[in-house]
Amino acid sequence: MMISSNNWSGIVPPQYIFSKRKFKCVVLDPPDFNPGSWIGAGDVMFDSEHEEFWMVVRHRRAPPLRGYELGIYRSRDGENFKLVRTLSKEELSEMLGMNVYSVEGVQLLKDPLTDKYMLFVSIDVGGAWDTLLITSDYPSEEWISKGIVLRHSERGFDSREARDPVIGVVDGLFIALYRACNGKKCNTGLAVSNDGVNWRKLGVPNVDGSPQPSYMQLCGSIFAGSMGAIYMGLVRRRVVNGCGIADTFEAYLITRDGLTTLFKGKWSPRSPYEHKECPTHGYIDIVYDPLRNRVLMYVEAIDPKYTKEVGWKTQVDRWILYEVPLDDLR
Question: Is 79 exposed, middle or buried (0-12, 13-18, 19+ CB in 10 A)?
Fold first, then answer.
């Protein structure tokens, strides 16, 4: 995704990606179309070794069931995915040795040291949320628990939630932007690691030199830019009936001094599968497709047809795809 064209240099500008996005298809429908049925909170990885795409999403139905399993899918083109296995919350409970009541945001990547697949899973452990790490030699095969690697604190900025991580490996450093909540504020926390297992929390980073508002959650992807690590994706800034909503696409430079805004734009629906007032649930994954020289944007969209009322118990979410061709930038 690095370019030198049109007097642009560095990563493909987020402004370009945002403006050129075109709806491609519905990737996955929810488990059913009843209120509270969602699919998404997922992550897609292009596996350069096998030249295939791997996708993990959570399957969810209305409470009390909630996020009941993870679906692991494989694709050759990034558009048509086949389910190869599931991991239920009961299986995760058995791996971890404690009850997992629900699953949510996931992150999939390859360990640059061991070449194993690393899957970070947000889990409800009963009154709080943590992030579990499981690993595998190949996604369709056995997964092994490495335990909770990002845990909520006893007190402080993430005393209720340390979950939904956005993780990138830049220059060998694992960088995580994660949902950090304490019951009063719900922000984006920053953590770093050299192995993906042992993390050092750096707190809640400032944005353009100012503290984050009381509600701000980033969910997208992290890339290496010419200036350093770059976040690109959606940002939740409001809550509707207990459900976080994102309707802005934003990009930030990540430094030790905090987040510096690179771009912010209003996300307007370009498909018939997005609610006009509340288009997305806030989950997005952005992937470069080197086989076709394009950017793929997977979005958890709030469906306007089956959603009678936006809210964590009532809305219906699909997993849809946008694409951005990059041939004009060669």
Answer: middle
In this structure, are residues 197 and 149 in contact, taking their beta carbons and an 8 Å threshold?
A: yes
Question: How many independent structural domains does the chain possess?
Answer: 1
Q: Mean per-residue pLDDT for 64-75?
A: 97
- Determine which helix (DSSP H) or strand (DSSP E) holds 264, and give its type and residue range: strand 258-266
Which CATH number covers residue 188? 2.115.10.20
Range of the structural domain that residue 49 is part of? 2-329
Please tell me whether the overall predicted TM-score, pTM, comes out greater than 0.85 for this model.
yes
Residue 60 and residue 101: Cα distance in Å, rounded?
A: 12
Pairing between β-strand 8-11 and β-strand 2-5 as defined by DSSP bridges:
antiparallel
Give the pairing of strands 173-181 and 144-150: unpaired
Hey, what are 235's tokens? 């940002």
The whole-number average pLDDT for the span 81-86 is 98
CA distances from 132 to 104, 146, 197, 278, 325 (A): 11, 7, 10, 30, 35
Residue pLDDT, tens place only, 241-253: 999 999 999 999 9
Tokens 């009063």 sit at which residue? 184
